[in-house]
Q: What sequence folds into this?
């Protein structure tokens, strides 16, 4: 068997990542959300109160993009923003009751998707797969 008998690892990984990401996006949309909403809710939920700069870093997006998402989510009643009393230039973000409910719906959708994704794959293989993914990330500089 030669290296050309199979697609290169990078191409196969990219193709798989795209298919999985699209399926995950669809699962979140079906639950009433989107990936940016889920990542924002998850990031806010993981901290009692988060500021916008911290959120952008946790989610991995630019501040201006986050502001767009936060404006939309605030208009939907999912979160509130208020000025930090110690630094008026900083906005603190917190979930509303509706945001908590949306978080729970999307959390359940994420859990169901993960279960579907892992179906039929033994735990030992998943552990090995996680190790291989970590090695691939390490090989390209994480």
A:
């Amino acid at each position: 068997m030669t290296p050309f008998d199979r697609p290169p690892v990078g191409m196969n990984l990219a193709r798989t990542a795209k298919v999985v990401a699209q399926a995950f996006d669809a699962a979140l949309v079906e639950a009433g959300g989107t990936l940016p909403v889920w990542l924002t809710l998850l990031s806010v939920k993981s901290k009692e109160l988060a500021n916008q700069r911290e959120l952008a870093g946790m989610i991995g997006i630019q501040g201006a993009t986050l502001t767009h998402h936060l404006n939309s989510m605030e208009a939907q009643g999912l979160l509130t923003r208020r000025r930090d009393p110690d630094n008026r230039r900083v906005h603190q973000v917190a979930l509303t009751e509706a945001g908590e409910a949306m978080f729970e719906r999307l959390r359940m959708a994420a859990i169901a998707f993960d279960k579907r994704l892992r179906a039929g794959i033994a735990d030992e293989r998943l552990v090995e797969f996680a190790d291989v993914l970590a090695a691939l990330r390490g090989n390209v500089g994480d």
User: Anything to note?
Assistant: The mean pLDDT is 88. The first helix runs from residue 9 to 30. Residues 13 and 134 are 13 Å apart (CA to CA). The radius of gyration is 19 Å.
